[in-house]
Design a protein that fits this description.
7 helices, Rossmann fold, alpha/beta
Length: 236
């Protein structure tokens, strides 16, 4: 699928392809409500819209949002494109399917970049700046029976994502895997990854996975030790 990609917008790569294949396996009823967070070029939202979904795409980058809108027009489909921080633009809405290809590359800086190309992949020392937030907000985004498809690297804690999603009341498991050599960004940080214990010495391959999480119940489990969560009171 040809896509317009302005400078600074994340180019569809191996993680995108893995997530697209997982999306293709999901049954989508005509008019199903879908959301693609961290949309980049909008390729996943476009793929859903071409199957008849009522597709929404969101990204914090204005350049990415513009690219997603242009790509929807290019492929002759309608995608509602929003700009904002993660799920904030769709607060209070529920979706039948949510896809996310977030920044997940471990980086020395403790905070996410405010601008520039690294904003599309840098995610703090353990790669979980966005992943942890996604695991927290995902249940409130899903309609009963709704599905989350999340792609990430083995370097950023697959087990941690599964545990967080399950603790929030979702049924979560890995449904797709792909091993691939480090690209230029990962290769440049390989020695640092070794020092951090994120990879074994000499390792220059990462495993990408897609996690599929399903919301079965009409309410979301409240994390232990917290007060009543507004998420648990949302109507099903």
């Amino acid at each position: 699928m040809g896509m317009i990609r302005p400078p600074g917008v994340y180019a569809p790569q191996g993680d995108t392809a893995l997530l697209l294949r997982s999306l293709a396996r999901e049954p989508l009823e005509p008019g199903a409500r879908t959301l693609d967070l961290c949309t980049g070029t909008g390729i996943l939202a476009v793929a859903a819209a071409r199957r008849g979904a009522e597709a929404t795409a969101s990204d914090i980058s204005r350049a990415a949002a513009a690219a997603a809108q242009s790509n929807a027009r290019l492929h002759g489909c309608h995608v509602r494109v929003l700009t904002g921080d993660l799920a904030v633009p769709v607060s209070g809405e529920r979706f039948d399917l949510v896809t996310v290809n977030p920044p997940y590359v471990p980086a020395a800086a403790p905070d996410a970049p405010a601008r520039g190309r690294r904003r599309a992949w840098d995610a703090g020392p353990d790669g979980r700046l966005l992943l942890d937030r996604i695991c927290r907000v995902a249940p409130a985004l899903l309609a009963p029976g709704g599905v989350l498809l999340l792609v990430q690297s083995s370097l950023s804690g697959i087990g941690a994502s599964l545990a967080a999603l399950r603790a929030a009341g979702l049924r979560a498991r890995v449904v797709a895997r792909r091993a691939q050599p480090f690209g230029p960004v990962m290769e440049a940080r390989a020695d640092w990854f070794e020092r951090r214990g994120l990879v074994a010495r000499g390792t220059r391959v990462e495993e990408l996975v897609v996690i599929r999480a399903v919301r079965d119940a009409a309410t979301v489990r409240r994390p232990a030790g917290t007060g009543t969560s507004p998420l648990s009171r949302l109507p099903g």
